[in-house]
Structures are given as structure tokens and as C-alpha cells.
Design brief:
Helices cover about 90% and strands about 0% of the residues. The protein has about 70 residues and is mostly helical. The protein folds into two domains: about 1-30; about 35-69, no CATH class.
């Protein structure tokens, strides 16, 4: 029984992920409105990108290159 549930979750991971994202977006829209929701999602995206190691290394290289010029 548990194996089937785990297998179903793994096979349909994107469906569950986008379902949760849609639920959270809907709650934010209803609770805070469109502009505040866009602001919250933008900050979440920026935080996601800054947490990415590859993005951090590219950003550091760009900053150092601009400081050298």
C-alpha cells in the first residue's frame, strides 16, 4: 500500500508540485491581492535564484569583472 503511494508520488511529482504552487498562489491572491502577491512571488524567486550555487558564482564573476574595469 505504502509502496504504491510512493510510486504514484514519484511518477506524478510535477502534478503534485504544481498543484501545491497553484494552491499557495490562490491563497495569496485571495488574502493579499494581485500586486502584493506579485511582490511576494518576485521576492521568493529572487531568494531562489540567490540560493543557487551556480548563479552565485556567475554573479560573483560579473561583479568582480565590473569592479576591475
Amino acid at each position: 500500500m505504502l509502496e504504491k503511494i510512493i510510486e504514484n508520488f514519484i511518477l506524478n511529482f510535477r502534478k503534485y508540485l504544481y498543484g501545491v504552487i497553484g494552491l499557495i498562489s490562490g491563497i495569496l491572491l485571495v488574502e493579499y491581492g494581485v500586486l502584493k502577491t506579485i511582490f511576494i512571488l518576485a521576492l521568493a524567486f529572487i531568494g531562489y535564484k540567490l540560493g543557487d550555487k551556480e548563479f552565485q558564482s556567475k554573479l560573483k564573476k560579473q561583479i568582480l569583472n565590473r569592479l576591475r574595469d
